[in-house]
C-alpha cells in the first residue's frame, strides 16, 4: 500500500509539473496555477506521509527519479509567474555594453539602443536601477557570455546551482546522521520546483551558499563558511543574517573573512558610493506585494530592519548553546515572515533545513505561501484578505500548539496540585 501511495504521488507530481509547463502565461491563469500547485502539494504531503515506512534505498531512488523528471518538465517553460529572469539577462546585456546596471534604469534614454521586443517589454520596474549585488552581476555576465540574451540559459545555470544544493544537502545529512530519505522533503517540494526550475530565481545561488556554509560550519571550518556566506550575500543580501551564528566568543576570524570578501566584491563599484546599492532603498520603501508581519502593522522600513536585527542578535547571543542548525532555522524562518515582502521564492532557502529539522507547520507554509499568487486574481492586483490569512495559518496553528503543549502535558500535575490529589504514577 505504501509503495502504491509513493508511486502515485510521484506520478501526480510529475504530471502537475508537465501541466504547469503547458500553460502559456501563469499570470493570466492564476486559478489554474493555484489548483495545480495545490494538487502538487497534496502529492508531496502524501509522499512524505508514507516515506518513513519504506526501505530507505529503494524509496530514495524513486525520490530522485521523480525529482529529476519534475524539474526537467519545468525547465523548458518560459518564466511567466515572475519575470525576474528577464531582468537578469537585461543587467548582463547592459554590463556587456560597458554601462553599469547601477547607474541607469532600463527606461533611461541612454539605454534605448539596447531595448528589444523580447527582453525589455517583460522587465518589472523598468524605472528602477538594478537591486542585485555584484556577485549576481558577475553570474549574469558569465551566463551571458556563454549564451547571450538567453533566458533559458539563465534558468539552466540556476537549475544547476539548485542541483548542487541537493548534493551539498545530502552531504550535510550524512554529517548530521540524518537518513538520506529525508532528501524528499527538499527534492519533492513544489515551491523549489516552481520557483527555481519554473521561474528561474536567483535564490538558487543564495540557497547553495547558505547550505554549503552550514556544511563547512558543522565540519568546524568557520572561516570557509563565512567566505561562502559572503559570496551568498554578494548574490542576495539575506545570507548575511547567518554570519553572527559563526562568531564564537573572541574568535573574529569569520567576521574578517566575511568583510574581506564583501569588500573585494564591491571594490569595482566603489566609485559609485551609495549608488552601488542601485534601487535597493526604493525597493524597501515602495515595493508592496506580500508584506511580512511587521510591515503589515507598521509600514516603516527602518522598523522592519530593526526587528530583523533584533531577531538575529537574540538567536546569536541568547541561543548560543543551541545546535547551529536549530539556530539557523530560527533565523531563516523568522527572517522570512518578518521581511518587508514575503515573495514565495524568498521561502525557498528554508526548505533544505526542513529536511534536517522537519516541521509540519513550516512544511505546510511552503505550500500556503503560494496563496500570494492570488495577487493576480483581480484588478487592480492585490492579495485578498482570506488568502493572507490562509497563507500564515499553518504557522499560527503551529505557534498555538507550541504554546499549548506544555500546559496540556502538565495538566494532570496541575489538576492534582489544585485539588491536592496525587497523580497516578507520580508524586503529589
Shape: globular
What is the mean pLDDT? 92
| Continuous helix count | 19
- Tell me what portion of residues adopts beta-strand conformation: under 5%
List keywords for this structure.
single chain, 62% helix, 0% strand, mainly alpha, 19 helices, 428 residues
General description of the model:
By secondary structure, the chain is an all-alpha fold. Helix 3 (56-75) runs parallel beside helix 8 (190-198), helix 9 (203-218) packs antiparallel against helix 10 (222-233) and helix 14 packs antiparallel against helix 15. Mean pLDDT is 92; it is low at 420-428. It has helices spanning 2-22, 30-51, 56-75, 84-96, 134-146, 151-176, 183-187, 190-198, 203-218, 222-233, 253-266, 280-286, 293-297, 301-318, 324-338, 351-356, 360-368, 385-409, 411-419. It has one domain (2-383). The termini are far apart.
Summarize the SSE layout with pairings:
Blueprint: H1 2-22, H2 30-51, H3 56-75, H4 84-96, H5 134-146, H6 151-176, H7 183-187, H8 190-198, H9 203-218, H10 222-233, H11 253-266, H12 280-286, H13 293-297, H14 301-318, H15 324-338, H16 351-356, H17 360-368, H18 385-409, H19 411-419
Helix pairs in contact: 1-2, 1-3, 3-8, 4-5, 6-9, 9-10, 10-11, 14-15, 17-18
Summarize the structure.
The chain has helices spanning 2-22, 30-51, 56-75, 84-96, 134-146, 151-176, 183-187, 190-198, 203-218, 222-233, 253-266, 280-286, 293-297, 301-318, 324-338, 351-356, 360-368, 385-409, 411-419.
Amino acid at each position: 500500500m505504501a509503495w502504491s501511495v509513493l508511486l502515485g504521488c510521484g506520478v501526480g507530481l510529475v504530471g502537475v509539473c508537465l501541466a504547469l509547463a503547458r500553460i502559456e502565461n501563469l499570470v493570466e491563469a492564476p486559478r489554474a496555477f493555484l489548483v495545480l500547485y495545490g494538487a502538487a502539494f497534496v502529492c508531496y504531503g502524501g509522499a512524505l506521509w508514507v516515506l518513513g515506512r519504506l526501505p530507505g534505498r529503494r524509496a530514495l531512488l524513486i525520490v530522485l527519479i521523480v525529482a529529476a523528471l519534475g524539474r526537467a518538465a519545468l525547465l523548458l517553460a518560459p518564466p511567466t509567474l515572475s519575470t525576474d529572469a528577464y531582468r537578469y539577462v537585461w543587467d548582463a546585456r547592459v554590463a556587456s555594453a560597458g554601462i553599469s546596471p547601477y547607474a541607469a534604469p532600463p527606461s533611461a534614454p541612454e539605454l534605448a539602443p539596447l531595448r528589444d521586443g523580447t527582453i525589455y517589454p517583460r522587465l518589472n520596474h523598468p524605472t528602477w536601477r538594478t537591486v542585485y549585488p555584484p556577485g549576481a552581476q558577475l553570474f549574469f555576465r558569465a551566463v551571458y557570455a556563454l549564451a547571450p540574451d538567453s533566458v533559458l540559459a539563465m534558468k539552466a545555470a540556476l537549475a544547476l546551482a539548485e542541483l548542487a544544493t541537493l548534493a551539498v544537502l545530502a552531504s550535510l545529512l550524512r554529517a548530521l546522521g540524518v537518513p538520506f530519505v529525508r532528501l524528499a522533503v527538499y527534492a519533492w517540494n513544489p515551491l523549489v520546483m516552481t520557483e527555481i526550475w519554473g521561474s528561474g530565481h536567483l535564490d538558487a545561488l543564495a540557497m547553495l551558499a547558505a547550505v554549503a556554509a552550514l556544511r563547512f560550519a558543522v565540519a568546524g571550518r568557520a572561516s570557509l563558511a563565512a567566505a561562502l556566506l559572503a559570496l551568498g550575500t554578494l548574490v542576495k543580501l539575506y545570507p548575511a543574517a547567518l554570519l553572527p551564528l559563526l562568531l564564537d566568543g573572541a574568535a573574529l576570524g569569520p567576521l574578517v573573512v566575511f568583510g574581506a570578501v564583501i569588500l573585494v566584491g564591491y571594490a569595482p563599484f566603489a566609485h559609485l558610493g551609495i549608488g552601488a546599492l542601485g534601487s535597493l532603498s526604493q525597493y524597501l520603501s515602495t515595493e508592496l506585494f506580500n508584506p511580512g508581519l511587521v510591515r503589515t502593522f507598521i509600514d516603516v522600513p527602518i522598523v522592519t530592519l530593526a526587528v530583523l536585527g533584533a531577531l538575529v542578535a537574540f538567536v546569536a547571543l541568547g541561543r548560543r548553546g543551541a545546535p547551529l542548525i536549530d539556530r539557523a532555522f530560527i533565523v531563516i524562518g523568522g527572517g522570512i515572515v518578518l521581511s518587508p515582502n514575503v515573495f514565495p521564492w524568498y521561502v525557498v532557502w528554508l526548505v533544505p533545513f526542513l529536511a534536517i529539522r522537519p516541521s509540519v507547520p513550516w512544511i505546510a507554509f511552503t505550500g500556503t505561501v503560494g496563496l500570494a499568487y492570488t495577487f493576480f486574481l483581480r484588478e487592480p492586483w492585490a492579495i485578498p484578505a482570506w488568502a493572507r490569512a490562509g497563507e500564515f495559518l499553518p504557522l499560527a496553528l503551529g505557534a498555538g500548539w507550541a504554546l499549548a503543549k506544555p500546559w496540556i502535558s502538565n495538566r494532570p500535575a496541575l489538576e492534582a496540585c489544585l485539588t491536592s490529589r496525587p497523580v497516578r504514577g507520580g508524586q503529589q
